């Protein structure tokens, strides 16, 4: 995909990206609790892969559709004529849909940038507020092995695991005074389970997606549900380990360690409102191996179905083979939406032919458009942009193979000419395209 086509393709891909991310969240809303009951909290936590996988599959299908190896024969040349003394302007109605779409995408990206900057500001402020105590290591708290290398920082928002290139363990300044020996051991093992799950990096991904979809109405619910499922999975991992604590003692530790302090890119113990559900889950027995295997299989099926469904919305292009009828332009429709000769190009007397490679879908809609570079002088970028803008609104007759429509490429030459004298023929063309 050429760089000059990337903004246009992103404009086409943005609605599908948001739709598939939303579909993944709605599937989570419907399935996370039944899956937790079937296979346990760790399987329900793994289901959170569904929204980003569906979104990335949709993005990949729109940005990198499978393409044929060679182009079909050239279609009819589109000629744009304008008199040397004519001042051309594109009607606002012709550009309005593209401008509205570009405005919405620009607003989305602007909001995402602001959300990312706000997230970065909160994270930087938290890092500056961390306190380092010399000799404050996990070995001092009785933790040995590879986990003993985890760095400790002191902050009132602890206990928590904070994202960093090397994750940090946050402990409150009065950690030793607030909790007894058994509680300190339970808290440390809980946070080490977060590290074993890779939660520091999953929190980073969740924060980035939250900033990207700052406008999404399901975002607040998704963030709360993600945090709860993460904590439930961490509890399940801890109770399945050799450091399994006593149920009543662990529940009391959770109640004492609950915090409402904001923690960007961190995994805290939990918000007090979520403790009731967490403690109720602790009393449930561990799911059997067949049920956990069934849950894992269901997740793999859902992820595979999301990838296939996202790609099915962008028909696969086929190779140009003998016996396949190539796509053609819908001349009667496209003649009503010809390219507009840019004003600056007319003033600079810029002419030339732009060759567009258009991936035509089974419905006759352009799925991907880019400039096809040819040897020799290249047309001005303003002419290329005008061609891309016009072709995005065109319709085509799809290619067929064995009587069935298939996606395939077509090459469309668009010729821009400035003439000095009017003739009856050029007068007719100019009036039709201006």
Tally of extended strands?
A: 12
Q: How far is the N terminus from the C terminus?
A: 30 Å
Q: What structural class is derived from the secondary structure elements?
A: alpha+beta
- Any idea what the radius of gyration is? 29 Å
Q: Helical stretch count?
A: 15
Helix content: 40-55%
What order do the strands of the largest sheet run in, or round the barrel if closed? 1-12-7-8
Name the average pLDDT.
80
Largest sheet: 4 strands, mixed
Order of helices and strands: HHHEHEEEHHHHHEHHEHHEEHEEEEH
The portion of residues forming beta strands comes to 5-15%
* Coarse shape: elongated
Q: Would you write up a description of this structure?
A:
The longest helix is centred in the N-terminal third of the chain and has 38 residues, at 92-129. The strands form four sheets. The chain has a four-stranded mixed β-sheet. It has a four-stranded mixed β-sheet with strand order 2-4-3-5. A two-stranded antiparallel ribbon has the order 6-9. The two termini are 30 Å apart. It is elongated, with a radius of gyration of 29 Å. It has helices spanning 6-39, 41-46, 50-63, 92-129, 175-178, 181-196, 199-212, 219-239, 247-257, 275-282, 289-312, 331-334, 343-347, 381-391, 424-433; strands at 78-83, 151-154, 160-162, 168-171, 266-268, 328-329, 352-360, 366-371, 396-397, 399-401, 404-406, 408-419. It contains 15 helices and twelve strands. It is of the alpha+beta class and 434 residues long.
């Amino acid at each position: 995909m050429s760089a000059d086509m990337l903004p246009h393709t992103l404009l086409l891909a943005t609605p599908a990206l948001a739709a598939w991310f939303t579909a993944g969240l709605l599937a989570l809303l419907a399935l996370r609790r039944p899956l937790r009951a079937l296979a346990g909290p760790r399987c329900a936590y793994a289901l959170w892969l569904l929204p980003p996988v569906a979104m990335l599959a949709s993005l990949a299908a729109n940005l990198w559709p499978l393409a044929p190896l060679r182009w079909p024969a050239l279609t009819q040349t589109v000629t744009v004529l304008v008199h040397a003394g004519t001042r051309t302007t594109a009607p606002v109605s012709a550009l309005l849909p593209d401008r509205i779409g570009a405005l919405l995408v620009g607003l989305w990206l602007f909001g995402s940038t602001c959300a990312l900057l706000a997230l970065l500001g909160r994270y930087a402020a938290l890092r500056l507020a961390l306190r380092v105590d010399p000799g404050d290591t996990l070995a001092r708290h009785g933790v040995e092995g590879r986990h003993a290398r985890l760095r400790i920082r002191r902050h009132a928002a602890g206990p928590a695991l904070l994202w960093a290139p090397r994750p940090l363990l946050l402990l409150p300044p009065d950690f030793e005074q607030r909790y007894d020996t058994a509680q300190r051991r339970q808290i440390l093992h809980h946070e080490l389970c977060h590290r074993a799950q890779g939660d520091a990096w999953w929190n980073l991904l969740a924060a980035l997606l939250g900033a990207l979809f700052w406008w999404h109405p399901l975002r607040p619910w998704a963030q709360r549900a993600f945090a709860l499922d993460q904590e439930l999975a961490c509890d399940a991992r801890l109770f399945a380990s050799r450091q399994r604590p006593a149920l009543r003692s662990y529940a009391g530790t959770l109640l004492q360690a609950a915090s409402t302090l904001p923690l960007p890119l961190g995994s805290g113990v939990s918000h007090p409102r979520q403790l009731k559900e967490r403690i109720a889950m602790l009393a449930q027995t561990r799911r059997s191996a067949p049920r956990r295997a069934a849950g894992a299989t269901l997740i793999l099926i859902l992820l595979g179905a999301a990838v296939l469904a996202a790609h099915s919305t962008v028909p696969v292009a086929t190779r140009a083979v003998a016996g396949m009828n190539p796509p053609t332009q819908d001349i009667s429709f496209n003649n009503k939406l010809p390219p507009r000769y840019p004003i600056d190009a007319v003033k600079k007397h810029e002419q030339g032919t732009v060759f567009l490679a258009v991936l035509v879908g089974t419905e006759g809609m352009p799925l991907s458009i880019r400039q096809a570079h040819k040897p020799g002088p290249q047309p001005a970028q303003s002419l290329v942009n005008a061609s891309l803008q016009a072709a995005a609104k065109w319709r085509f007759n799809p290619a067929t193979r064995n009587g069935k429509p298939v996606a395939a490429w077509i090459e469309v030459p668009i010729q821009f000419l400035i003439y000095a004298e009017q003739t009856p023929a050029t007068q007719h063309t100019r009036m039709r395209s201006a």
